[in-house]
């Protein structure tokens, strides 16, 4: 039985800010179903404690010296669907308001917090059987291969193959070089072939260079990030990994995202009960205080209100959409100025525009289920889960042709028989407006029922992706002794 140790900053349902939480919560379960032994390590954040989920605290506790202090670690554990979720408890780092920082910002010691997570996870796991493979996620987990190569990893651990998955290249874990001594690594790890990048410490770069394989969350994004436009300064480093950089498109959890069994919906439905969907839509309008206009389509945005997601472009076209008789609902939080802009739009268009600032999963579910169109004007999108969740709930995506959206959404105008949404190319409001106009026309004149049935029947589950990860795991385990990460590791 292949055993995998995962390290991530989020894993749903325990901690979720965005899609990383979905992936790190679900992929392990789909792998466990295929017979793998998967352990996931994440911080024991205050939110987990406050949610009433008290993992069983294990006898495992130890002290780890990190960033100039001896730190007491306790390890909690919860078994869920055959996966061991382990929680690293350390009061000063993880008992705080917010996961990454207050109000969508960052804590000033995130370098120390997440390097600590990795070290503590490796130390906690050292008393278990050696895993066959370590799979770490994003910059938060990216130092795992570095600690194996240069750090104080237990004997045997250095030869464990590692896979790093990049969920978003825009977040690299870049810090002032002054934090380097806090990481507990030998001086030679601060070099261009590891952590140093133009005079700063860059966690993700080090992981990219030291992991045996680097994956990202869609084939298109894997290609895009080797170019200057979306490479965020690491395109050269990524391109140099050649065939060791692999794109695997995410799936979504078809058990939790299921409109037939979703307890958040007032009227559950499936593809054969579209009148039930319609009733849910009317109830949603009441809930959001939108006018009960049966003939106007409802466009929805759910997501982080940040530049990446192009939420500002949507804000820009809302007045025109309202003039054309469309309704809009928005759920999200993020940059203060984008939040304020949406609040103002809701204030000036009562009954037509509904805005909820915050994180509200049950409401998100009713929005996916009760809206006609899901708008994702992302400037870049490593994979995107929103568009896949929307389709599962019979809501047609309107997306920019970028990243994982290219791999999952196919334009209905170009392919009326096989399409599943509306896709636009350009970077501006004009392009988004044109796609929204096409969607609205389709609402009035297209064969909506047939298309909704079609998109609800698509298979965007983890079945396919889990198989691809498994293949890659097998390949890395077979290739382990030749892996690039554990070379010249004598002075750790
Ligand atoms: P990203 O990870 O870049 O934020 P994804 O589309 O991959 O984008 O995943 C976003 C996930 O977070 C989806 O499950 C989406 O439903 C959820 N989500 C985002 N914002 C909110 C919110 N304000 N309330 C509830 N769920 C949200
Ligand atoms: C990131 C990306 C998103 C992706 C998610 C899960 O947050 O922005 O596109 O779907 O990770 O991999």
Largest sheet: 9 strands, mixed
Cofactors and ligands: adenosine-5'-diphosphate, alpha-D-glucopyranose
Instruction: Return the CATH topology of the largest domain.
Output: Rossmann fold
How would you describe the shape?
Answer: globular
Beta content: 15-25%
Number of domains: 2
Instruction: Enumerate the spans where pLDDT stays under 50 for 5 or more consecutive residues.
Output: 482-492
Helix amount, in percent?
25-40%
Straight-line distance between termini:
30 Å
CATH architectural designation of the largest domain: 3-Layer(aba) Sandwich
The helix count comes to: 18
Sheet with the most strands: spatial strand order: 3-4-5-2-1-6-7-11-12
Q: Could you tell me the radius of gyration in angstroms?
A: 23 Å
Overview of this protein structure:
With 492 residues, this protein is of the alpha/beta class. The protein has two domains: 3-251 and 464-479, Rossmann fold (3-Layer(aba) Sandwich), CATH 3.40.50; 274-456, Glycogen Phosphorylase B (Rossmann fold, 3-Layer(aba) Sandwich). Helices cover 36% and strands 19% of the residues. It has helices spanning 19-33, 46-50, 91-94, 110-125, 138-141, 144-150, 203-210, 219-224, 235-239, 274-288, 311-323, 336-348, 361-370, 386-392, 403-408, 429-445, 448-456, 463-479; strands at 3-7, 37-43, 56-66, 69-80, 83-89, 133-137, 162-166, 174-176, 196-197, 200-202, 213-216, 245-247, 298-302, 327-332, 353-357, 373-376, 396-400, 422-424. β9 and β10 form a beta hairpin. The protein starts with a strand and ends in a 13-residue tail after the last helix. 49% of the residues are buried. The structure holds adenosine-5'-diphosphate and alpha-D-glucopyranose. Adenosine-5'-diphosphate is lined by residues 18-20, 22, 302-304, 331-333, 359-361, 364, 383-386, 389.
């Amino acid at each position: 039985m292949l055993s995998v140790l995962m390290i991530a900053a989020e894993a749903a349902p325990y901690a979720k800010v965005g899609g990383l939480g979905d992936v790190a919560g679900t992929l392990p379960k789909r792998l466990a179903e295929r017979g793998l032994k998967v352990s996931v390590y994440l911080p024991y954040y205050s939110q987990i404690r406050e949610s009433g989920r008290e993992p069983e605290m294990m006898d495992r506790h130890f002290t780890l010296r990190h960033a100039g202090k001896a730190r007491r670690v306790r390890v909690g554990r919860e078994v869920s669907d055959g996966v061991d979720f382990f929680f690293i408890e350390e009061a000063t780092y993880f008992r705080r308001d917010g996961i990454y920082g207050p109000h969508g910002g960052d804590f000033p010691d995130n370098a120390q917090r997440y390097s600590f997570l990795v070290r503590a996870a490796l130390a906690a796991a050292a008393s278990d059987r050696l895993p066959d493979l370590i799979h770490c996620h994003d910059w938060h987990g990216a130092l795992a291969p570095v600690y194996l190569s240069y750090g104080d990893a237990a004997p045997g651990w250095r030869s464990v193959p590692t896979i790093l998955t990049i969920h978003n290249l825009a977040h690299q874990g870049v810090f002032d070089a002054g934090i380097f001594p806090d990481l507990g690594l030998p001086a030679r790890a601060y070099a261009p072939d590891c952590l140093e990048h133009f005079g700063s410490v860059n966690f993700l770069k080090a992981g990219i260079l030291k992991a045996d394989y680097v994956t990202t969350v869609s084939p298109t994004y894997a290609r895009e990030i080797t170019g200057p436009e979306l490479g965020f300064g690491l395109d050269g480093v990524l391109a140099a990994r050649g065939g060791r950089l692999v794109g695997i498109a995410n799936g979504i959890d078809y058990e939790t995202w299921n409109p037939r069994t979703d307890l958040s919906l007032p009227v559950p439905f499936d593809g054969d009960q579209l009148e039930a969907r319609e009733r849910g839509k009317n109830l949603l309008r009441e809930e959001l205080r939108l006018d009960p206009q049966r003939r106007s389509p409802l466009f929805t945005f759910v997501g982080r209100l940040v530049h990446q997601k192009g939420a500002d472009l949507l804000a820009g076209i809302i007045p025109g959409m309202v003039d054309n008789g469309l309704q809009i609902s928005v759920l999200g939080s993020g940059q203060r100025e984008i939040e304020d802009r949406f609040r103002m739009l809701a204030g000036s268009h009562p009954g037509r525009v509904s805005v909820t600032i915050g994180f509200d999963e049950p409401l998100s579910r009713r929005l996916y289920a009760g809206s006609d169109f899901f708008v994702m004007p992302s400037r870049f999108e490593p994979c995107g889960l929103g568009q896949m969740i929307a389709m599962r709930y019979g809501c047609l995506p309107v997306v920019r042709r970028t990243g994982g959206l290219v791999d999952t959404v196919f334009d209905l105008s170009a392919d009326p028989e096989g399409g599943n949404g509306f896709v636009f190319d350009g970077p501006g409001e004009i392009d988004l407006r044109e796609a929204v106009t096409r969607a609205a026309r389709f609402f009035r004149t297209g064969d909506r029922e047939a298309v909704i049935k079609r998109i609800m029947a698509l298979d965007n589950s983890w079945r396919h992706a889990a198989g691809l990860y498994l293949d890659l795991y097998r390949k890395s385990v077979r290739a382990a002794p030749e892996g690039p990460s554990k070379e010249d590791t004598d002075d750790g």
